[in-house]
Each structure stands twice: as structure tokens, then as C-alpha cells.
User: Fold this.
Amino acid sequence: MVNAIILVVLVVLFGFAVKHSIKHFKGEGACCGRGSGTVKTKKPKKKKLAGPVVGKRTIKISGMHCQNCVNSVTRALNGIDGVVAKVSLRDNSAEVLLDRMVDEKDLKRAVEEAGFRVVSITSKR
Assistant:
């Protein structure tokens, strides 16, 4: 009898875990440990470069699941002087415009400190 009760409890807990995981990956539930329910985050402030564009980079990023993730990466990259980033959840990438030389290590560090992994960084002309 005790084994049956334990089994029922485990099945119920497993069911809730699967349901939450499905909602999470559909972008309907809470994401990244930042609350519960529907995640409503402020969009990052629009940023403009101080000078002309001297470089472009595409950063492939893994670990983004929702708009909150996109906002976190955007804020992290835009926090670097001379950088303006447009992050895409659909492409799992960031298009970065530079108005001065910025070391790729700084771009990678910003993304990783936001909690995501850089897959690659490529230069665009």
C-alpha cells in the first residue's frame, strides 16, 4: 500500500514537471528563473552609435528561450561602449554594429555573464 502511494505521488510530480517543461519551451511559462507565470520584461533602451559603423559581427548564441533572454543579451551587449546589438530569438543570434574596435573577447564575456553561451562570432563586411 505504501509503495502504491509513493508511486502515485511520483507520477503526479513527474506530470507537473513535464507540463512545466512544455510550457517553458513554448515560451508560455516563466523562464530563466526570473519569476512565475507570463514573463513581462522591459525592452532594452534604444541605443545609437556615437560614430560611423566600422565593423559588424554576428554572434551565434545558445541558451535563449524567451523574450526575457533576448532582452538580457541585448542589455549586456549594449552595455559595451561602441556596440549596438539586435538580438534574434528565432535565429539564436545577435547582429552587432561597432563604431570602434571592440575585442571579440569582450563581446563573448558580456553574453556569458548574461548567462548564455557563445557558439561563434563571425565578422561581416
